[in-house]
Amino acid sequence: MAIDIIMPQLGETVAEGTVIKWLVPQNGHVEKDQPILEVETDKVALEIPAPASGALSEILVREGETVAVGTVLGRLEIGGQPVETRSQSDTERRQEGLAGTSVKEGEHFSPAVRRLAKEYGVDLYQIRGTGAGGRITKTDVLAYLERQRGIASGSPSGEIGDRAAQETPADRLIPLTSMRRTIAQRMVESRRTAAHATTFFEVDFRAVDTCRTQHNLTYLPFVVHAVVQGLRAYPILNSSWTDEGILCKGAINIGIAVAVEDGLLVPVIARADRYGLLTLAKMIADLAHRARTKQLKPDEVQGGTFSITNHGGMGSVFSTPIIHQPQIAILGVGAVCKRAVVLDDAIAIRPIGILSLSFDHRVIDGATADRFMHKVKDCLEHERWEHHL
Predict the structure, then answer these.
(1) Which among 74, 20, 71, 29 is positioned nearest to 47, based on CA atoms?
(2) pTM
Protein backbone atom coordinates (compact mmCIF):
# COMPACT_ATOMS: atom_id res chain seq x y z
CA MET A 1 0.00 0.00 0.00
CA ALA A 2 1.39 3.39 -1.01
CA ILE A 3 0.69 6.78 0.60
CA ASP A 4 0.97 10.01 -1.37
CA ILE A 5 3.20 12.72 0.05
CA ILE A 6 1.63 16.01 -1.03
CA MET A 7 2.65 19.67 -0.98
CA PRO A 8 0.82 20.97 2.11
CA GLN A 9 -1.04 24.26 2.52
CA LEU A 10 1.63 26.31 4.27
CA GLY A 11 -0.42 29.44 4.81
CA GLU A 12 -3.90 30.81 4.20
CA THR A 13 -2.88 32.65 1.01
CA VAL A 14 -0.10 30.32 -0.16
CA ALA A 15 -0.78 28.57 -3.46
CA GLU A 16 2.58 26.87 -4.12
CA GLY A 17 5.75 25.64 -2.48
CA THR A 18 9.29 24.64 -3.45
CA VAL A 19 10.98 21.32 -2.67
CA ILE A 20 14.28 22.36 -1.10
CA LYS A 21 15.76 18.97 -0.23
CA TRP A 22 14.78 15.33 -0.02
CA LEU A 23 16.11 14.10 3.33
CA VAL A 24 15.66 10.41 2.42
CA PRO A 25 16.96 8.87 -0.83
CA GLN A 26 14.64 7.06 -3.21
CA ASN A 27 13.94 3.55 -1.89
CA GLY A 28 15.35 4.62 1.47
CA HIS A 29 13.56 3.58 4.66
CA VAL A 30 11.93 6.15 6.93
CA GLU A 31 10.18 5.90 10.26
CA LYS A 32 6.84 7.55 11.00
CA ASP A 33 7.23 11.27 11.87
CA GLN A 34 10.87 11.26 10.71
CA PRO A 35 11.54 14.29 8.44
CA ILE A 36 11.35 13.12 4.84
CA LEU A 37 11.83 16.37 2.90
CA GLU A 38 12.23 20.12 3.34
CA VAL A 39 9.86 22.51 1.57
CA GLU A 40 9.69 26.29 1.45
CA THR A 41 7.22 29.02 0.54
CA ASP A 42 7.41 32.79 0.77
CA LYS A 43 6.06 32.46 4.33
CA VAL A 44 7.83 29.50 5.88
CA ALA A 45 10.44 26.79 5.41
CA LEU A 46 9.91 23.52 7.23
CA GLU A 47 10.53 19.80 7.25
CA ILE A 48 7.66 17.49 6.30
CA PRO A 49 7.42 14.36 8.49
CA ALA A 50 6.71 10.93 7.07
CA PRO A 51 3.02 9.99 7.57
CA ALA A 52 3.98 6.34 8.25
CA SER A 53 6.95 3.99 8.39
CA GLY A 54 8.03 2.61 5.05
CA ALA A 55 10.20 3.07 1.95
CA LEU A 56 10.25 6.17 -0.25
CA SER A 57 9.28 4.29 -3.39
CA GLU A 58 8.89 7.31 -5.70
CA ILE A 59 10.21 10.87 -5.87
CA LEU A 60 8.02 12.75 -8.31
CA VAL A 61 9.16 16.37 -7.75
CA ARG A 62 12.83 17.29 -7.93
CA GLU A 63 14.73 19.50 -5.51
CA GLY A 64 14.35 23.12 -6.55
CA GLU A 65 10.99 22.63 -8.27
CA THR A 66 8.03 24.84 -7.34
CA VAL A 67 4.62 23.18 -7.51
CA ALA A 68 1.05 23.95 -6.52
CA VAL A 69 -0.42 23.07 -3.13
CA GLY A 70 -1.85 19.54 -3.27
CA THR A 71 0.69 18.25 -5.81
CA VAL A 72 1.93 14.71 -5.13
CA LEU A 73 5.64 15.05 -4.32
CA GLY A 74 6.40 11.38 -3.82
CA ARG A 75 5.01 8.08 -2.61
CA LEU A 76 5.72 6.10 0.52
CA GLU A 77 5.30 2.33 0.45
CA ILE A 78 4.09 1.20 3.87
CA GLY A 79 6.34 -1.46 5.33
CA GLY A 80 10.06 -1.82 5.50
CA GLN A 81 10.93 -2.57 1.89
CA PRO A 82 10.65 -0.61 -1.36
CA VAL A 83 8.33 -1.78 -4.12
CA GLU A 84 9.99 -4.40 -6.36
CA THR A 85 7.22 -4.81 -8.93
CA ARG A 86 8.12 -1.78 -11.02
CA SER A 87 10.07 -2.57 -14.16
CA GLN A 88 13.73 -1.69 -14.30
CA SER A 89 13.25 0.47 -17.39
CA ASP A 90 10.53 2.49 -15.66
CA THR A 91 12.75 3.09 -12.64
CA GLU A 92 15.66 4.09 -14.84
CA ARG A 93 13.51 6.53 -16.82
CA ARG A 94 12.31 8.18 -13.60
CA GLN A 95 15.82 8.45 -12.20
CA GLU A 96 17.02 10.00 -15.45
CA GLY A 97 14.23 12.54 -15.27
CA LEU A 98 15.05 13.39 -11.67
CA ALA A 99 18.80 13.50 -11.49
CA GLY A 100 20.58 12.52 -14.69
CA THR A 101 18.96 14.80 -17.25
CA SER A 102 21.24 17.21 -19.03
CA VAL A 103 20.70 20.79 -17.85
CA LYS A 104 21.26 21.95 -21.41
CA GLU A 105 17.57 21.36 -21.99
CA GLY A 106 15.67 24.42 -20.74
CA GLU A 107 12.63 22.45 -19.64
CA HIS A 108 14.74 20.87 -16.90
CA PHE A 109 15.64 24.16 -15.22
CA SER A 110 13.61 24.61 -12.03
CA PRO A 111 11.02 27.41 -11.91
CA ALA A 112 13.10 29.32 -9.35
CA VAL A 113 16.17 29.16 -11.59
CA ARG A 114 14.24 30.20 -14.69
CA ARG A 115 12.69 33.11 -12.78
CA LEU A 116 16.10 34.39 -11.65
CA ALA A 117 17.54 34.00 -15.15
CA LYS A 118 14.70 35.99 -16.66
CA GLU A 119 14.89 38.76 -14.05
CA TYR A 120 18.64 39.30 -14.41
CA GLY A 121 19.15 38.35 -18.06
CA VAL A 122 21.36 35.37 -17.26
CA ASP A 123 22.36 32.84 -19.94
CA LEU A 124 21.97 29.59 -18.01
CA TYR A 125 24.18 27.75 -20.51
CA GLN A 126 27.15 29.73 -19.12
CA ILE A 127 26.68 28.36 -15.61
CA ARG A 128 28.07 25.11 -14.29
CA GLY A 129 25.54 23.41 -12.03
CA THR A 130 26.48 21.93 -8.66
CA GLY A 131 23.18 20.13 -8.04
CA ALA A 132 22.38 16.46 -8.57
CA GLY A 133 23.33 15.35 -12.08
CA GLY A 134 24.82 18.76 -12.83
CA ARG A 135 21.51 20.53 -12.19
CA ILE A 136 21.75 24.31 -11.89
CA THR A 137 20.46 25.51 -8.52
CA LYS A 138 19.35 28.93 -7.38
CA THR A 139 22.60 29.21 -5.41
CA ASP A 140 24.56 28.62 -8.62
CA VAL A 141 22.74 31.50 -10.34
CA LEU A 142 23.29 33.87 -7.42
CA ALA A 143 26.99 32.99 -7.27
CA TYR A 144 27.30 33.57 -11.03
CA LEU A 145 25.67 37.01 -10.65
CA GLU A 146 28.12 37.94 -7.92
CA ARG A 147 31.09 36.89 -10.07
CA GLN A 148 29.79 38.87 -13.06
CA ARG A 149 29.32 41.99 -10.97
CA GLY A 150 32.85 41.63 -9.66
CA ILE A 151 34.14 41.52 -13.24
CA ALA A 152 31.95 44.46 -14.31
CA SER A 153 33.17 46.64 -11.44
CA GLY A 154 36.89 45.92 -12.09
CA SER A 155 39.46 48.67 -11.41
CA PRO A 156 39.95 51.32 -14.14
CA SER A 157 43.37 51.56 -15.74
CA GLY A 158 45.98 54.06 -14.62
CA GLU A 159 47.38 55.06 -11.22
CA ILE A 160 44.63 57.62 -10.49
CA GLY A 161 41.94 55.16 -11.47
CA ASP A 162 43.46 52.44 -9.28
CA ARG A 163 43.58 54.77 -6.28
CA ALA A 164 39.98 55.90 -6.84
CA ALA A 165 38.84 52.28 -7.09
CA GLN A 166 40.48 51.52 -3.75
CA GLU A 167 38.90 54.56 -2.07
CA THR A 168 35.37 53.98 -3.41
CA PRO A 169 33.88 50.52 -2.83
CA ALA A 170 31.95 49.11 -5.76
CA ASP A 171 28.16 49.03 -5.68
CA ARG A 172 26.66 45.64 -4.94
CA LEU A 173 23.23 44.40 -5.98
CA ILE A 174 21.68 41.82 -3.67
CA PRO A 175 19.23 39.63 -5.61
CA LEU A 176 15.82 39.34 -3.98
CA THR A 177 14.95 36.03 -2.36
CA SER A 178 11.47 34.63 -2.84
CA MET A 179 10.60 35.41 0.78
CA ARG A 180 11.87 39.01 0.60
CA ARG A 181 10.06 39.67 -2.67
CA THR A 182 6.79 38.32 -1.29
CA ILE A 183 7.12 40.22 1.99
CA ALA A 184 7.63 43.40 -0.03
CA GLN A 185 4.58 42.70 -2.18
CA ARG A 186 2.36 41.92 0.80
CA MET A 187 3.47 44.92 2.84
CA VAL A 188 2.71 47.25 -0.07
CA GLU A 189 -0.56 45.40 -0.66
CA SER A 190 -1.51 45.79 3.02
CA ARG A 191 -0.80 49.53 2.95
CA ARG A 192 -2.82 49.86 -0.24
CA THR A 193 -5.72 47.72 1.05
CA ALA A 194 -6.19 48.84 4.67
CA ALA A 195 -6.67 52.40 5.92
CA HIS A 196 -3.70 52.35 8.29
CA ALA A 197 -3.66 54.47 11.42
CA THR A 198 -1.48 54.14 14.54
CA THR A 199 -1.97 55.09 18.17
CA PHE A 200 0.68 55.03 20.94
CA PHE A 201 0.39 54.41 24.69
CA GLU A 202 3.00 54.65 27.44
CA VAL A 203 2.92 51.73 29.87
CA ASP A 204 4.48 51.44 33.32
CA PHE A 205 5.87 47.88 33.52
CA ARG A 206 6.73 47.98 37.23
CA ALA A 207 4.05 45.43 38.20
CA VAL A 208 5.14 43.19 35.33
CA ASP A 209 8.81 43.46 36.33
CA THR A 210 8.10 42.23 39.86
CA CYS A 211 6.59 38.96 38.58
CA ARG A 212 8.84 38.72 35.51
CA THR A 213 12.11 38.73 37.45
CA GLN A 214 10.85 36.23 40.01
CA HIS A 215 10.05 33.68 37.30
CA ASN A 216 12.76 34.59 34.75
CA LEU A 217 10.29 35.54 31.99
CA THR A 218 10.36 37.99 29.11
CA TYR A 219 7.82 40.77 28.68
CA LEU A 220 6.08 39.07 25.76
CA PRO A 221 3.85 36.54 27.63
CA PHE A 222 2.54 39.40 29.79
CA VAL A 223 1.73 41.43 26.68
CA VAL A 224 -0.02 38.42 25.09
CA HIS A 225 -2.14 38.00 28.23
CA ALA A 226 -3.03 41.71 28.26
CA VAL A 227 -3.93 41.64 24.54
CA VAL A 228 -6.22 38.67 25.16
CA GLN A 229 -8.04 40.71 27.84
CA GLY A 230 -8.30 43.61 25.41
CA LEU A 231 -9.72 41.39 22.66
CA ARG A 232 -12.27 39.92 25.05
CA ALA A 233 -13.42 43.44 25.97
CA TYR A 234 -13.36 44.70 22.36
CA PRO A 235 -13.85 41.66 20.08
CA ILE A 236 -14.16 43.88 16.99
CA LEU A 237 -10.33 43.99 16.95
CA ASN A 238 -10.33 40.19 16.57
CA SER A 239 -11.87 40.43 13.11
CA SER A 240 -11.19 40.84 9.41
CA TRP A 241 -12.71 42.92 6.62
CA THR A 242 -14.74 41.20 3.90
CA ASP A 243 -16.87 42.56 1.06
CA GLU A 244 -19.94 41.15 2.81
CA GLY A 245 -19.13 42.71 6.18
CA ILE A 246 -16.80 42.56 9.18
CA LEU A 247 -16.05 38.94 10.13
CA CYS A 248 -15.57 38.65 13.91
CA LYS A 249 -13.50 35.59 14.79
CA GLY A 250 -14.61 33.29 17.58
CA ALA A 251 -11.12 32.03 18.54
CA ILE A 252 -8.34 34.29 19.77
CA ASN A 253 -5.24 33.16 17.85
CA ILE A 254 -2.24 35.41 18.47
CA GLY A 255 0.50 35.63 15.83
CA ILE A 256 4.00 36.42 17.13
CA ALA A 257 6.33 38.01 14.56
CA VAL A 258 9.74 36.27 14.47
CA ALA A 259 12.75 37.60 12.58
CA VAL A 260 14.44 34.87 10.52
CA GLU A 261 17.43 34.90 8.20
CA ASP A 262 15.54 35.86 5.03
CA GLY A 263 12.75 37.95 6.52
CA LEU A 264 9.87 37.52 8.93
CA LEU A 265 7.57 34.68 9.97
CA VAL A 266 4.43 34.93 12.10
CA PRO A 267 3.78 31.61 13.91
CA VAL A 268 0.46 31.46 15.72
CA ILE A 269 -0.51 30.61 19.30
CA ALA A 270 -3.94 29.05 18.76
CA ARG A 271 -6.47 29.79 21.51
CA ALA A 272 -4.02 31.97 23.39
CA ASP A 273 -6.77 32.78 25.90
CA ARG A 274 -6.50 29.26 27.34
CA TYR A 275 -2.96 29.54 28.72
CA GLY A 276 -1.21 30.99 31.75
CA LEU A 277 1.98 33.03 31.69
CA LEU A 278 4.42 30.15 32.14
CA THR A 279 2.84 28.11 29.35
CA LEU A 280 2.71 31.16 27.05
CA ALA A 281 6.40 31.82 27.69
CA LYS A 282 7.31 28.23 26.75
CA MET A 283 5.14 28.31 23.64
CA ILE A 284 6.59 31.63 22.45
CA ALA A 285 10.17 30.41 22.91
CA ASP A 286 9.40 27.11 21.19
CA LEU A 287 7.70 28.73 18.18
CA ALA A 288 10.51 31.26 17.77
CA HIS A 289 13.18 28.52 17.90
CA ARG A 290 11.39 26.31 15.40
CA ALA A 291 10.68 29.26 13.09
CA ARG A 292 14.42 29.99 12.93
CA THR A 293 15.33 26.33 12.45
CA LYS A 294 12.66 25.65 9.79
CA GLN A 295 10.74 23.19 11.95
CA LEU A 296 7.31 24.83 12.08
CA LYS A 297 4.29 22.74 11.14
CA PRO A 298 1.94 24.01 8.40
CA ASP A 299 -0.94 24.70 10.80
CA GLU A 300 1.34 26.79 13.04
CA VAL A 301 1.48 29.64 10.50
CA GLN A 302 -2.24 29.72 9.77
CA GLY A 303 -5.38 31.04 11.40
CA GLY A 304 -3.97 34.10 13.18
CA THR A 305 -6.57 36.68 14.22
CA PHE A 306 -4.32 39.35 15.80
CA SER A 307 -0.54 39.88 15.67
CA ILE A 308 2.17 41.18 18.02
CA THR A 309 5.63 42.33 16.96
CA ASN A 310 8.33 42.85 19.60
CA HIS A 311 10.48 45.46 17.85
CA GLY A 312 11.90 46.55 21.21
CA GLY A 313 14.15 43.50 21.37
CA MET A 314 16.90 45.45 19.57
CA GLY A 315 16.26 48.72 21.43
CA SER A 316 13.58 50.26 19.20
CA VAL A 317 11.28 52.58 21.16
CA PHE A 318 8.61 53.59 18.61
CA SER A 319 7.26 51.69 15.61
CA THR A 320 4.33 51.84 13.20
CA PRO A 321 3.97 48.16 12.21
CA ILE A 322 2.08 47.17 9.07
CA ILE A 323 -1.08 45.10 9.50
CA HIS A 324 -0.76 41.38 8.73
CA GLN A 325 -3.65 40.80 6.31
CA PRO A 326 -6.45 39.78 6.61
CA GLN A 327 -6.29 40.87 10.26
CA ILE A 328 -7.31 44.41 11.18
CA ALA A 329 -4.71 45.30 13.81
CA ILE A 330 -1.15 44.63 15.01
CA LEU A 331 0.45 45.61 18.32
CA GLY A 332 4.07 46.81 18.48
CA VAL A 333 6.04 46.42 21.71
CA GLY A 334 8.86 48.92 22.22
CA ALA A 335 11.91 48.61 24.46
CA VAL A 336 11.19 48.94 28.18
CA CYS A 337 13.58 51.51 29.67
CA LYS A 338 13.84 53.23 33.03
CA ARG A 339 12.64 56.83 32.72
CA ALA A 340 11.80 59.77 34.91
CA VAL A 341 8.03 60.20 35.13
CA VAL A 342 5.75 62.51 37.13
CA LEU A 343 3.56 60.70 39.69
CA ASP A 344 1.40 62.73 42.08
CA ASP A 345 3.44 65.86 41.33
CA ALA A 346 6.68 64.06 42.17
CA ILE A 347 9.40 62.68 39.92
CA ALA A 348 9.88 58.89 40.02
CA ILE A 349 11.88 56.33 38.05
CA ARG A 350 9.77 53.70 36.32
CA PRO A 351 10.31 51.00 33.64
CA ILE A 352 8.38 52.56 30.75
CA GLY A 353 7.58 51.00 27.38
CA ILE A 354 5.69 52.35 24.39
CA LEU A 355 2.98 50.16 22.86
CA SER A 356 1.76 51.00 19.36
CA LEU A 357 -1.39 49.78 17.68
CA SER A 358 -1.67 49.95 13.91
CA PHE A 359 -5.32 49.41 12.97
CA ASP A 360 -7.56 49.39 9.92
CA HIS A 361 -9.62 52.58 10.01
CA ARG A 362 -12.20 50.95 7.74
CA VAL A 363 -13.18 48.61 10.60
CA ILE A 364 -12.70 50.68 13.75
CA ASP A 365 -12.28 54.35 14.65
CA GLY A 366 -9.60 55.91 16.83
CA ALA A 367 -11.85 55.92 19.90
CA THR A 368 -12.30 52.14 19.77
CA ALA A 369 -8.57 51.62 19.19
CA ASP A 370 -7.77 53.81 22.19
CA ARG A 371 -10.28 52.02 24.42
CA PHE A 372 -8.66 48.72 23.50
CA MET A 373 -5.20 50.10 24.23
CA HIS A 374 -6.38 51.55 27.54
CA LYS A 375 -7.59 48.08 28.52
CA VAL A 376 -4.23 46.55 27.57
CA LYS A 377 -2.36 49.27 29.48
CA ASP A 378 -4.57 48.90 32.55
CA CYS A 379 -4.05 45.13 32.58
CA LEU A 380 -0.25 45.43 32.35
CA GLU A 381 -0.09 48.05 35.10
CA HIS A 382 -2.62 46.64 37.60
CA GLU A 383 -3.09 42.90 37.03
CA ARG A 384 -2.30 40.60 39.96
CA TRP A 385 0.11 38.54 37.91
CA GLU A 386 0.73 35.82 40.47
CA HIS A 387 -2.83 34.62 39.78
CA HIS A 388 -2.06 34.02 36.08
CA LEU A 389 1.06 31.87 36.19
Answers:
(1) 20
(2) 0.66
